[in-house]
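Exercise 3.2. Students should predict the tertiary structure of the chain below and write it as structure tokens, then compare their answer with the key that follows.

Predict this chain's 3D structure.
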Amino acid sequence: MAVVPYKNDVAGKKLQVARMFDTISGNYDFLNHFLSFGIDIHWRKKAVKMLVKDQPKLILDVATGTGDFALEALSLKPSKIIGVDISEGMLEVGRKKMKEKGVSEIVEMRTGDSENLPFQENMFDAIIVAFGVRNFEDLRKGLGEMLRVLKPGGRVVILEFSKPVSFWFKPLYSFYFRFITPTIGKLFSKDSHAYTYLPESVNAFPDGKDFTRILDELGYKNTSCKPLTFGISSLYSGTK
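Answer key:
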């Protein structure tokens, strides 16, 4: 059974996730950085470094949200970054950020379903995703769509939360994620369900080798997984 934000809602996961992000979009960036102590910024920088040698010119940012990963990817000097997301609320915040930073011509923010990408096959030099794949209603379909629109030889880089395995760090992380995160999220967010859904969705996500196995089965090559910050998140990569 899929983990969803609103357990008493009959709507599917995709619609619930879109509604959730629409609701929290105004405070999303602040809470993201606050709850992670700013480490999420460092994680994105490490993810982007994996693409330096590839020098991608056309990049797709799946589940772009407010565009933080797309902004970090500008350091690669691409000619174009297209960010897609199902939440108009998040995209609206992202478009304002791009305009304020003067990069709207390079970074385009589009409404789009990650599981039905509106692009032709073999289009993008690289695809990036930060904290988005665990929100897919159909994980395999979304990852398959990414592979379809990726050019042969292109690389996908995925940043996602994972479950720490360290015997001393795991209980600390579990307490923070299960109790502190939802409490702070409830204080600053309009949606008390959003930051309860976060630890539940991470716990249900097939991380580490389980995730790279899925990538392998779908046809990705040279897959890898690198745990970050005691395994709080993981950096995955694969090529077509």
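Discussion points: Helices lie at 13-35, 39-49, 68-73, 88-100, 139-149, 169-188, 194-204, 209-218. The chain has one domain: 13-239.
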